[in-house]
Amino acid sequence: MSANSLPASESRPVGEQYASLMARYERLMEISRQLTSTLDLNALLDQIIQAAIELTESQAASILLVDPQTGELRFEAASDISSGTRDALIVPKEGSVAGWVVTHGEYVLVPDAPNDPRWFQEVEKSVKTKTRNMLAVPMRAHTRIIGALEALNKRNDAPFTADDVNTLTTLAAQAAIAIENARLFQQNDFIAELVHELRTPLAALKASTMLLMRPSLPEDRRHEIIATMERETDRLIRMTTEFLDLARLESGRTKLEMAPFDLRELIDETVTVVRQQAQERAITINIDAESVVVEGDRGKLKQVLLNLLTNAIKYNREHGLIDVCLRFPQERGQDTVTVSVRDTGRGIAKEDQAHIFERFYRVADSEGFTQGTGLGLIIAKRIVEAHNGNMWLESEPGVGSTFSFTLPRQSYKSRRAATSPAH
Ligand code: ADP
Predict the structure, then answer these.
(1) Per-residue pLDDT reduced to its tens digit, 32-43
(2) For labeling, which of 126, 161, 305, 358 is most exposed (least CB within 10 Å)?
(3) Alpha-carbon span 264 to 269, nearest angstrom
(4) Is 348 touching ligand 1 by the criterion CB < 6 Å?
(5) Could you give the CA distance from residue 165 to residue 366 in angstroms, rounded to a whole number?
(6) Model pTM greater than 0.85?
(7) What separation in angstroms does the CA of 67 have from each of 73, 126, 245?
């Protein structure tokens, strides 16, 4: 292949070369067996990285995968890039070695990375080691190319050899199939969780119908049972719709309808929706917010605010307070807004705080609130993350909880600045 120039064969005696090749091959087989038995995707990616470093005697390795939904190429694992940097980095299909490998389905040898036009310079800013040379091979699962595996800086300043190409190609093929298996398993896991959660309301419905069939059932009891059935069917409907919402968000299939709007107006509007519900529990809601225009999906962000507010009402005490605060730094260059919803409820224990944004998680003593699905918060967090924001929680048991989220302001103009004539 013209894109790759392989170095001349090694200077070691043939017998020695053959023995080391066999040892390498045996090790490759051993690693392949380990890979196919790992179903945890992150653990698997780490194993592949370590195997690539060991088998090609390199300094570092990276795995880049094509997102099945968006088609974007991203670093999924790398021995010398921090996970934060990795997650934020989309590698262009044109103008990167991995992009070339994924598009052409062939390996690439880069003997002099810094002077190679295919080299994606952006990565270099975030890695500890400087890349000298590199070998990248496609990761092919069945007929599809799912990504690229890269080995960087062959040790002792040596060039990569034809054996390295063969070994890394075989490893990448095994790794690709193992990744596909782990992904399938993850999806099944997600569905298994839903099925498990659906069983509780279904069991309640089944028990209710059995009771209703008893001819001797008193009328008031019958009404009670019908009310339970209505509540449980509502919860089933909510669970399935919310589950689909979440699955769409997590797979990147949710399209955000981005437009500028006043966040303060949205807060007012959302508080109006829940005001009645709050009054029923004698809860007061205060708003401390100035107008600020943000760019986002207004409908989806309303869903986020509604979730936080209804939780702040549901898990508050009677006669409690809720403060909704909107903060945005006035200085130039500060481009995020922060919204927080603070309640005076029972708070959330430290051990529960770590799990509160997990699917279906409900705090043990709030299980009595059968109307909950345990999906609201994770959906809210995913919506905020889809806007490149963050969501977090601060809480003190017995005092209350504050849920906050940030949003980038993007095309920010304060309402006042936008409407007042320029001087
Ligand atoms: P749910 O539909 O159960 O309310 P969420 O995902 O919105 O689902 O919330 C998950 C769990 O987190 C709730 O069941 C509750 O135990 C806890 N929680 C959420 N918000 C609060 C809050 N403001 N105060 C105390 N606990 C809360």
Answers:
(1) 888 878 888 888
(2) 358
(3) 9
(4) yes
(5) 57
(6) no
(7) 6, 22, 19
